[in-house]
UniProtKB/TrEMBL annotation, chains A, B:
PROSITE patterns xrefs: LIPASE_GDSL_SER
Biological-process GO terms, alphabetical: lipid metabolic process
Keyword flag Transferase: no
Protein name: SGNH hydrolase
Record Gene3D superfamilies: SGNH hydrolase
Keywords: Hydrolase
Source species taxonomy: Eukaryota, Fungi, Dikarya, Basidiomycota, Agaricomycotina
Keyword Hydrolase assigned: yes
Native species: Exidia glandulosa HHB12029
Transmembrane regions listed in the UniProt entry: none
One MF term in the entry's GO annotations: lipase activity
Residues annotated as domain SGNH hydrolase-type esterase: 11-210
Length: 258, 258
């Protein structure tokens, strides 16, 4: 089947992106408002860090030779750091420098005109999302409850450093950042004990925190690429009350590129 | 961007399909369980009947010449009738015979080996979904509350006739049917006054009724095409604990067709 008539929003990241399909998740909320305008393609990979994400990214992003055949990626969100920020004991750990280099590589893959994955910036927008804060106590309790029990694997300070790194790289590369870390930390009143309202297991988001991130994404779209806001994109196939029902309806039912 | 690594489930129909992206909607629930296995592509068109759906169907379904370039449609759900069943005063009305002919045409487009839209049955499965019962009183009240007020446009008997027609055509063409009409009517204890628990405005589904339909779809998959059940489909990109992190991770990160 081809969905070439509809372009796409691709959301790429770890379990926090994969979980975006939960009720109230940011993928579900985006898919709902962008229905008939842009398809939401979820490329969230639970447990992945940027080191493992890169080889997948090279496969899911169309090369210039493939681009004529596939839907245009109008917006790409890149949301990593929650796993890269694990302590060094974990195979998921990626050093801060390597994390920044991997994020930079993902962007240059699309932005370098000589790249085989080149996507013209006027056609494909890129948005970073910073990893959420960690509720280290809740996460440690969750890990301790596993069988066999697992040692704590993340700290608040460390995850903050990776969130700050996303903002640094975004600034260097002029990639807007939806700052999930700050939005959730602010909503928690800068109190770790309040994080459980937004991160039930200390690490993953719920409808309340996904809603904050969804709002950040729509604000970033409205500020940077207002033409991509769902309210500005017409339906690709006509609203039913615009269908020509007295004569031949076919001309009024042709896909209209938005 | 290409999502060729992931095949798709395409859901095609009217507003009841378009609304599947609501929290608890059948699209959201399918996307959640099929994450990393199959993409859910929502081609629901609010207000459409089969007469207007057909010319759109011809555009969204890949022709044989396009199929090598696009993700394979592994499952297609066709869910129409709620609008076709309008009374004749409405431009949305489609006669029962024409409704059956249009559903038949959608199937033969894919199944006729001489069709330019031919999809081999071993590769693409088709599932009909019957339209839900109508709560005519609630619908009439909703229409009367509009500005300007609108006259009643649907009856319980008429919608039942279109639901029965879906089952007839399914039987004729050997296309399985997820019988939403019966599931919702049974859940309402065969009492129109109980339908409001499942059809808040008399016509559209809520999380309770979408959940019934989601269960019917998974049952139909398990019975007819067990290999397509999400529990039988491996992740296209490896679970993180299967990633080779000591040596070169790339070989373990290649897309695996499922």
């Amino acid at each position: 089947m081809t969905s070439k008539q509809l372009d796409s929003i691709v959301i790429f990241g770890d379990s926090i992106t994969q979980g975006g399909w939960e009720p109230g998740g940011f993928a579900q909320k985006l898919a709902y408002v962008y229905a008939r305008r842009l398809d939401v393609v979820n490329r969230g990979l639970s447990g992945y860090n940027t080191e493992w994400g890169l080889p997948v990214f090279e496969q899911i992003v169309a090369k210039t030779s493939e681009q004529p055949h596939v839907p245009t990626m109008r917006l790409l969100t890149i949301w990593f750091g929650a796993n890269d920020a694990c302590l060094q004991q974990s195979p998921q750990y990626v050093s801060l420098d390597r994390f920044k280099a991997n994020l930079t590589r993902m962007v240059t893959m699309l932005r370098d005109e000589k790249s085989e994955w080149y996507h013209p910036p006027e056609r494909t927008k890129i948005l970073f999302i910073s990893p959420p804060p960690i509720d280290a106590d809740a996460r440690a309790a969750d890990l301790a409850s596993r069988n066999p029990p697992l040692a704590p694997d993340r700290t608040w300070d460390n995850t903050k450093a990776y969130a700050d790194a996303v903002k640094e790289v975004g600034k260097e590369l002029s990639v807007p950042v939806a700052d999930a870390w700050t939005a959730i930390w602010d909503a928690a009143g800068h109190k770790a004990e309040n994080l459980k309202q937004f991160l039930p297991d200390g690490l993953h988001l719920n409808a309340a925190s996904y809603s904050l991130v969804y709002d950040l994404i729509l604000e970033a779209i409205a500020q940077n690429w207002p033409e991509l806001h769902y309210s500005k994109l017409p339906f690709v196939f006509a609203p039913w009350n615009e269908v020509e029902w007295e004569g031949d309806p076919r001309p009024s039912l042709q896909a209209r590129h938005n």
